[in-house]
């Protein structure tokens, strides 16, 4: 991360696959704070998603597709907020909760 930041990278992301391990996320946030870069996280705790392919709700019921509980995003976002408070790093949460429309 340090070499990439020195080369001009201004942020880092997991690109659609949330960091499941809180210790790994804390380590990434600490490094990001050292280099003053942004961490963008796709907030989704896979232990809540099961076989879901889309957010649970009207459209998942209508299409008879397995839905993912919104708690998958909320739980990881809560966890990350606590870690961000600890590290003071700049953070961007990437979520898609159907209730945000």
What would you note in describing this structure?
- This protein has 101 residues and is α/β, with parallel strands linked by helices.
- The chain has helices at 2-6, 22-35, 58-62, 71-87; strands at residues 11-13, 38-42, 54-55, 67-68, 90-94.
- Strand 1, helix 2 and strand 2 form a beta-alpha-beta unit.
- The protein is elongated.
- The mean pLDDT is 90.
What's the arrangement of secondary structure elements?
Elements: H1 2-6, E1 11-13, H2 22-35, E2 38-42, E3 54-55, H3 58-62, E4 67-68, H4 71-87, E5 90-94
Parallel strand pairs: 1-2, 2-5, 3-4
Rg, rounded, reads 15 Å
User: H/E series, N to C?
Assistant: HEHEEHEHE
Supply the helix-strand structural class: alpha/beta
| Major sheet details | 3 strands, parallel
What is the averaged pLDDT score?
Answer: 90
Please give the share of residues in helix.
Answer: 40-55%
- Taking pLDDT < 50 over at least 5 consecutive residues as the criterion, the unreliable ranges are none
Supply the number of helical segments: 4
The proportion of residues in beta strands is 15-25%
In what order do the strands lie side by side in the largest sheet?
A: 1-2-5
Number of β-strand runs:
5
Distance between the termini: 34 Å
* Global geometry: elongated
């Amino acid at each position: 991360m340090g070499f990439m930041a020195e080369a001009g990278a201004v942020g880092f992301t997991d690109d659609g696959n949330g960091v499941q391990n809180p210790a790994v996320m804390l380590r990434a946030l600490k490094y990001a704070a050292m280099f003053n870069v942004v961490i963008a996280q796709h907030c989704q705790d896979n232990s809540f998603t099961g076989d879901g392919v889309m957010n649970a709700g009207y459209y998942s019921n209508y299409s008879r597709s397995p839905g993912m509980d919104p708690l998958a995003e909320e739980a990881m976002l809560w966890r990350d907020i606590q870690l961000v408070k600890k590290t003071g790093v700049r953070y961007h949460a990437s979520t898609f909760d159907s209730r945000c429309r």
